Amino acid sequence: MLVGLVWASGCAKHLPLAEPAAPLTPPTRLCAAGEAPPACRRAVEVEALLSEHTELVGIADTPSGMQGAKILTLRAQRGGSTVVFRAKWRPQSSAGLVNEPRKELAAYAVQKLFLEDGELVAPPTVAHCFPLAEYRLFVPKEPASFEKIDCVLGFASYWLEGVQSVGSAREDGVLGDGDGIWDAKLFKRDAMYRGSVSKANLLTYVIHHGDAHDEQFLLETTPRGLRTYVVDSSIAFRSIKNPMLLIREDWSQLHVPTLPKAAVERLRALKAEDYQRLKTIAALETKAVPARPAGRRPPREPGGLRPIPPRTPPPLERDNLWRQTESSILAGP
Fold first, then answer.
1. DSSP code of 178?
2. 3-class SS at 27?
3. What is the C-alpha separation between 227 and 174, in angstroms, rounded?
4. What is the pLDDT of residues 145-166, one digit of tens each?
5. Per-residue model confidence as pLDDT tens digits over 230-252
6. Positive or negative CA dihedral for 205, 209, 210, 212?
7. Counting beta carbons within 10 angstroms of the beta carbon of residue 55, is it exposed (0 to 12), middle (13 to 18) or buried (19 or more)?
8. What is the pTM of this model?
């Protein structure tokens, strides 16, 4: 009973969406298949923005959720231009026994096994370690994540601007025939909705999303139709499921009547080495410390860690991840 009450109150906070701490640089939406800049940003470009050195401009509360997530306003340099954008952020210090922010990073990586850049349904996510002095301008008591390294490790996901919750979409008539995220008539007539909601369902199924209810989906009205996103995948990959799914529709099961053929074929074509690359999704290393005169104690490293290309571990025999995916997907629908 107590566990159920705690889970039930997990999304009880409902605040107005905070304004950005600085004007955002257009475009602010992700490209879908068939679209290209300057009308939108490609996911690979957003991933690069999140990975580079970014200046922390502001931190605000998210409209809902009780897991320590924040909205960051960030400023980065890209191609000689300044780009201001927002990201959802969870420091590693907010991790719990079941709810782990690093799994957002894993979900983003897994979808790239079977979805192209313009098809992605989980927003770009990276591991990032902000300099402690910069972070403490907004969160004064945040501790450093590592001994002798002055930075705060966490996971940043591109903040989706101009999207709607499922509840809001139903109130506005954007969704009609059906319950929750599902609209049977829209599935038949709207190719964007049909493709994106199917891919979203395929992802929640593949990662065994343990909290896949209506509030974990967002909808974007685009010129090409209604686009579906999956957010908050911090309870996934065989985690204990949210008990509230006993009374909610659980989208970690397949609900759509058809799945995208190309995505399924990509899954069926995966080999052990494809899964092997998931063993190291992100890597960070300490920045070089400037030389100091002899006899002087070197200072704690300012700025802390920077991202580097992850190294693929040596191949193993068919390990647990391979066997699990083979049994749940390759032998599935």
1. S
2. coil
3. 11
4. 998 899 999 999 999 999 999 9
5. 999 998 887 677 656 555 688 98
6. negative
7. middle
8. 0.85
